Amino acid sequence: MTLKEQRGAVEISIHSPIACWFSAMLYCFGGSILSSLMLAEPPVAFLANTTSVLLASSIWYLIFYCPHDLVYRCFSFLPIRLVVAGMKEVTRTWKITGGIAHAHSHYKSAWMIMIVVGWARGAGGGLISNFEQLVRGVWKPETNELLKMSYPVKVSLIGAVLFTMQHCTYLPMTKQQLMFFYTVFLVVTKAAMMLMQCKTSPFAPLEKALACLFFGQQPTSSKANAPYNGISSTCDPTTSGETGDAVKKRLAKKTD
Do you know which InterPro entries this protein is assigned to (predicted)? Predict the structure, then answer.
């Protein structure tokens, strides 16, 4: 559904169904692909789970090609979409914990690798969004998630840090307790954002405060008539003291 709501996705589904299907698989299994690349494993390993691939492909076909868009319209109904979004956030928790456990099996005490792999598993679809857009013939490097993180990518990073700390016994709570509180936070926050139609991250005030504290105050935008680089221009009548008629006469003499 998220893919179909992207600009130009419907046209791509008509002209190139294979590209559309590949983009949908990147949306569904992007975390698995990215984490496999990080751990030097085959990125096509997700295809071994035939049931999941066939299920995702069936849903993709119904969303894009069902007559009269019946399936998409049905799941766009707000109560149903809230349930589906909540289910997705539940699976996000399992993906993060699965990625951390998978990284731990390769690197026992490398907690940074656990964080990175758990983050990739939970938000892989967003982290490889540029490659997914390239498959659809769209190239927007300014939408790189590392330049401007979306809410799912941010919350997945926070979850990866928390679950890694718990895995390394730095948090005084069990894994089940952390999974419960984290999942409840994800579901409630996502539902609130959808009901209020809020597109900004709920972490925005905290991020602004931390940015000012650790990275300095954000630079303010300069005025439109401010001199470039702080240097006054001699061609600016307001800085040279010349009137508009004097400037015109001087330019006319130069032209002659």
Answer: TRIC_channel (IPR007866)
Is 250's pLDDT higher than 80? no
Sign of CA dihedral 19, 22, 27, 33: negative
Specify the higher pLDDT residue, 199 or 34: 34
Q: Specify the pLDDT at position 247.
A: 52
- Amino acid at position 151, single letter: Y
H/E run at residue 180? helix 175-195
For residues 3-14, b (16+ Cβ closer than 10 Å) or e, as one string? bbebeebeebbe
Q: What's the distance, Cα to Cα, between the start and end of the chain in Å? A: 66
Phi, psi for residue 227 in degrees, rounded to 5: -70, 145
State the Cα–Cα distance between residues 85 and 92, nearest whole angstrom: 11
- Residue 20 Cα distances to 7, 75, 121, angstroms: 13, 20, 22
Q: How far apart are CA 214 and CA 203, in angstroms?
A: 16
Contact status, residue 34 vs residue 26, Cβ threshold 8 Å: no
What is the rounded CA–CA span in Å between residue 156 and residue 202? 14
CA distance 39 to 107: 10
Structure tokens at 251: 């330019």
What tens digit of pLDDT does each residue of 232-242 get?
A: 444 444 444 44
Q: How far is CA 212 from CA 76, 183, 241, in A?
A: 39, 30, 39
Judge contact between 201 and 154, C-beta under 8 A. yes
Q: From residue 208, give the alpha-carbon distance in Å to each of 153, 193, 200, 201, 216.
A: 17, 19, 13, 11, 10
